[in-house]
Amino acid sequence: MSLKYKFPENFWWGSATSGPQSEGRFNKKHRSVFDYWFDIEPQAFFNGVGPNVASNFYNSYKEDVKLIKEIGLNSLRTSIQWTRLIKDFETGEVDEDAAKFYNNVINEFIDQGILPVINLHHFDLPVELYEKYGGWESKKVVDLFVIFAKKCFELFGDRVKYWATFNEPMVVVEGEYLYKFHYPKLVDGKKAVQVLYNLNLASAKVIKEFKELGYDKNGGKIGIILNLTPSYPRSQEEKDVNAAKFVEDFFNNSFLDPAIKGKFPENLVEILNKDNVIWESTEEEMEIIRNNTIDFLGVNYYQPRRAKAKEEKFDESNGWMPDKYFDNYEMPGRRMNTYRGWEIYPQCMYDIAINVRDNYNNIPWYISENGMGVEGEEKYINDDGVIEDNYRIEFYEEHLSYLHKGISEGSNCFGYHTWTPIDCWSWSNAYKNRYGFIAVDLPTQIKTIKKSGRWIKEVAKNNGF
Ligand code: BG6
């Protein structure tokens, strides 16, 4: 068959979800910050739908994995919930039911020929650790996270070969400490900077543990999943270019550089020092960050960021914010996913590929999330009861064509995962926008393959399209 876009051999064709967004809270002994937030403020969630049932994966994982197999995916990411696996956060004592559950899930993936990629943190901090220590503001929590990670390696490291320390740690910084879209919805730039540092430290400490325990010696790889939002200036004028450079350093490179190069971007450190908001760190910690970089990178890409120079002087009377250095820029004529309010700009896939190739040692990397959330997909159901999500197929094909261009120019990308295999719970947007290859009817939990599910099966089979 002649294909326009052929991908490298053994390419990962897969999809990603997370524990808190798919499992439901069944039999979970602790609450994450999201469980807690829903318990105290259910009206903050679209249609008042919380994480209690989600897509029922806890009960239906066997059938779900079978459906995922049916759409031809060869790899799949999910996460282990800290609040499920661990009974006692201080000692790392494991909840036996949870260990059994995750063992069954991982074995099911493997039995169905699907490579498991396991992530350790997907925004789901135990709320007790926020109340007791201030969550990621505290280095004590960093060390407790290492205890949890170690348990995961010991329990599942014989079968799981691909691990991620965090999913989108920058979203924790933005949602919880800057822009109020995740509980506890603080606006505190100084704390945000400390959290940013602590998350980097936690990732490096987990990698150190992984290596010290020897999991890298028997084929294990450990990485991090970052949401990269390439930043483009409004114009080539110096002040706009500088604004975009700051945005790139603060929102992308503050995780990308430590993860791959073992150090923070110098310009950013200089600004944070000058503004007196630099994190507290020790030389010993910096050395851990320096010496424990990732084996592979996962990139979640949804939208670009556009920046312009500030139009008015930033009012610092309420404290420091990164917004001191830029304004967001809404480019006239930009293409939008109006359901989600995100710009659609597939060219970024190429720019990311070239950035990794040229500035990050061409490290092995993959697209770990890319997707299009659409509201009201029922209106696209055809006479056979199938959602005809042609818009999603077009979205994927466009993004893949730019990724392909990057790969054909030498970028070391080994896979493409979409968000998400089965419609899942999306934080405060709950089930508003659907992303899956497989639809969920919430009241009955009946799951049906969409047209895009048939499409990806063909793409995976042919290794291209
Ligand atoms: C990513 C996250 O930010 O995007 C997922 O890793 C999330 O957890 C996905 O669900 C889609 O975004 P949203 O906000 O529409 O759920």
From TrEMBL:
Superkingdom field: Bacteria
Gene: gmuD
Similarity comment: Belongs to the glycosyl hydrolase 1 family.
Keywords in alphabetical order: Glycosidase, Hydrolase
EC number: 3.2.1.86
Protein name: 6-phospho-beta-glucosidase GmuD
InterPro entries listed in its UniProt record: GH, Glyco_hydro_1
Biological classification of the source: Bacteria, Bacillati, Bacillota, Clostridia, Eubacteriales
GO cellular component terms given for this protein: cytosol
An individual GO BP term: carbohydrate catabolic process
Molecular function GO labels: 6-phospho-beta-glucosidase activity
Pfam name, any one: Glyco_hydro_1
The species this protein was found in: Clostridium saccharobutylicum
Transmembrane segments: none
